[in-house]
């Protein structure tokens, strides 16, 4: 977990909006939003202002930062334990939401014939797909690329025309990584 996520969580626990926290701290709403989204850092004096406004002690926040999980393991033996819902695909994120500030990653399992479109509201992003098992077709703008077990591709997200489809006869398992 990082400082921005901790502060957002504490603010929401108190039922405060960014605007209300901004008023209490004399820090701009935009700055507080950037801190919560891990775009900007906060000085100790400003952190103390925020903690005061949230009625939060600073020591537990530092301890939470110090004790954050920094390593996540998803062993291959767990791949088969993923239930695929009626949508025909399952996503197993490789880290919890509070740890995703720069990149997102997942193991994705697609049933034969199933497709997934581009991520919504993601611009200027890069993605990597590596096929662990099966066969996959990537449509990226006006290109169609077929990938099989062991193949990987690195590309810039194409908002309008992008999807992946399992074109094989069995489940396809991929590792997917994308910048946020």
Descriptive notes:
With 180 residues, this protein is an alpha+beta fold. Helix content is 26%, strand content 30%. It is built from five helices and nine strands; from the N terminus they run H-H-H-H-H-E-E-E-E-E-E-E-E-E. The chain has helices at 3-13, 18-25, 29-36, 44-53, 58-66, and strands spanning 89-93, 103-110, 115-117, 126-133, 135-140, 143-148, 152-156, 162-166, 172-179. Strands 1-2-9-4-7 form a five-stranded antiparallel sheet, with no helix packed on it. A four-stranded antiparallel sheet has the order 3-8-5-6, with no helix packed on it. Strand 5 and strand 6 form a beta hairpin. The longest helix has 11 residues, at 3-13. The model has no long low-confidence stretch (mean pLDDT 85).
Helical content band: 25-40%
Total helices: the number is: 5
Span between N and C termini? Answer: 16 Å
Largest sheet: 5 strands, antiparallel
What's the alpha carbon Rg, rounded to whole Å? 20 Å
Beta content comes to: 25-35%
User: In total, how many beta strands?
Assistant: 9
Average pLDDT reading: 85
Alpha-beta classification: alpha+beta
- The coarse silhouette is elongated
Write the element-wise H/E pattern from the N-terminal end onward: HHHHHEEEEEEEEE
User: Going across the major beta sheet, what is the strand order?
Assistant: 1-2-9-4-7
> What are the segments in which pLDDT stays under 50 over at least 5 consecutive residues?
none
């Amino acid at each position: 977990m990082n400082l921005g996520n901790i502060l957002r969580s504490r603010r929401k626990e108190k039922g405060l909006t960014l605007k209300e926290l901004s008023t209490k701290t004399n820090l701009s709403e935009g700055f507080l939003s950037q801190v919560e989204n891990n775009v900007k850092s906060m000085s100790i004096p400003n952190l103390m202002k925020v903690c005061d406004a949230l009625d939060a002690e600073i020591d537990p926040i530092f301890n939470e930062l110090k004790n954050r999980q920094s390593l996540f393991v998803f062993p291959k033996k767990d791949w088969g334990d993923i239930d695929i819902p009626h949508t025909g695909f399952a996503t197993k994120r490789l880290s919890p939401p509070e740890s995703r500030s720069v990149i997102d990653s997942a193991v994705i399992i697609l049933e034969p014939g199933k497709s997934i479109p581009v991520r919504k509201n993601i611009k200027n992003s890069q993605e990597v797909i590596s096929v662990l098992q099966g066969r996959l077709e990537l449509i990226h703008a006006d290109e169609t690329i077929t990938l099989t077990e062991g193949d990987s591709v690195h590309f810039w997200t194409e908002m309008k025309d992008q999807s992946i489809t399992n074109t094989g006869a069995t489940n396809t398992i991929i590792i997917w990584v994308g910048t946020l």
